[in-house]
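Design job #97: recover the sequence.
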């Protein structure tokens, strides 16, 4: 007997109930038993086409509705790419004789949105007021002055919140995290974004925990991706969740994407947070950066700037979002990365140049920060090292 589904309309449930009754009333046929198998023939409904019809009908009316927003001052690629990959999955399914799983619409505040100083115009399929319910909202990356961009798009914010409370999932791509964070939905949660704007993000949204290095973050139906093309991995993650692993692998192969990439750490260029008013901590930061070859202790820094050690650590963490030890390590590893990228020095030479004497400790810290060993990093980014 058909059990009514809560996510469908009365009309859709009535239609499926009719399909179920038709399916259950079909005559049965016996299968042939294999000679000498000793197995009994089994009975199945006829024809199988009716079963496929029922399943296909169910899939059609339970398609995931995807709303790709068209924010003002957004990066056009982060609008076009999601549309291409989700409609592409529908094409893969159609080629296999299966029903589509995604209904994709571009959702705007106006019928047309001009991007990149008017170079491109994106046409909205629907306006936000015309979308009463959706399953997945994609928030593209925004550009330019981020506070201005958020202001221009603030009409999206209550709509996103309302749809989320109705059961929609929300995913931000790259710096689209700024727009998602502006809804307040990320407060008390973790989030990924582009490493380049990490300091600005933390300054604007102190109640959100920005996770350095992670490609995809998922918490309670809220998704966010790392910087730039990292959002492809979030799109693959969403495809796997809603269309299955097979379709995610197919999409990865067709669009030449590296599936299951977890980190953007190798791409991060550390630039210490100095947009704060604590002058003593700024001086400590500059001292660390100018003395990268030296072994510097927290005790030495605290004495140098006449601050108690515990108080110095608290002030440093509050101002820079790093402990003094983390900051020293990041500065040294950033210097090591540059040498590995541009020089012919071996790993031990680079290690000594940035103030390390313990090979194991250097490799451990390097991999923790970059996600790669020093040798792997050198081979990845130093053309001369690869040729040798």
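Job complete. Output follows.
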């Amino acid at each position: 007997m058909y059990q009514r589904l809560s996510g469908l309309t009365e009309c859709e449930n009535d239609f499926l109930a009719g399909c179920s009754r038709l399916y259950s009333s079909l005559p049965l046929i016996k299968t042939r038993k294999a000679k000498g198998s000793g197995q009994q023939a089994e009975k199945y409904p006829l024809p199988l086409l009716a079963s496929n019809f029922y399943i296909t009908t169910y899939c059609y009316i339970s398609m995931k509705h995807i709303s790709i927003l068209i924010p003002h001052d957004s990066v056009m690629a982060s609008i076009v790419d999601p549309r291409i990959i989700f409609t592409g999955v529908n094409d893969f399914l159609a080629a296999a004789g299966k029903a589509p799983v995604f209904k994709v619409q571009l959702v705007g505040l106006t019928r047309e949105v001009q991007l990149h100083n008017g170079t491109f115009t994106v046409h909205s399929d629907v306006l936000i007021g015309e979308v009463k319910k959706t399953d997945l909202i994609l928030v593209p990356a925004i550009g330019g002055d981020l506070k201005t961009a958020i202001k221009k798009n603030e009409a999206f914010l209550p709509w996103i919140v309302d749809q989320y409370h109705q059961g929609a999932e929300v995913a931000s791509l790259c710096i689209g995290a700024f727009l998602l964070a502006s809804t307040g939905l990320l407060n008390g949660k973790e989030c990924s974004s582009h490493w380049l704007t990490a300091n600005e993000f933390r300054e604007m949204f102190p109640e959100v925990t920005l996770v350095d290095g992670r490609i995809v973050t998922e918490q309670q139906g809220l998704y966010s991706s790392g910087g730039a093309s990292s959002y492809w991995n979030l799109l693959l993650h969403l495809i796997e969740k809603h269309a299955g692993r097979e379709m995610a692998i197919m999409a990865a192969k067709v669009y030449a994407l590296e599936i299951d990439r977890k980190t953007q750490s190798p791409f991060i260029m550390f630039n210490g947070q100095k947009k704060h008013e604590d002058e003593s901590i700024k001086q400590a930061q500059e001292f660390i950066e100018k003395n990268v070859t030296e072994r510097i202790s927290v005790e030495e820094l605290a004495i140098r700037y006449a601050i108690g050690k515990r108080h110095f650590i608290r002030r440093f963490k509050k101002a820079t979002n790093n402990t003094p030890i983390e900051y020293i390590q990041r500065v040294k590893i950033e210097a090591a990365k540059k040498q590995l990228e541009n020089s012919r020095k071996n790993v031990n030479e680079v290690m000594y140049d940035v103030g390390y004497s313990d090979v194991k400790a250097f490799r451990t810290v390097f991999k923790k920060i970059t996600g790669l060993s020093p040798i792997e990093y050198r081979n990845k980014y130093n053309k001369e090292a690869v040729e040798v």
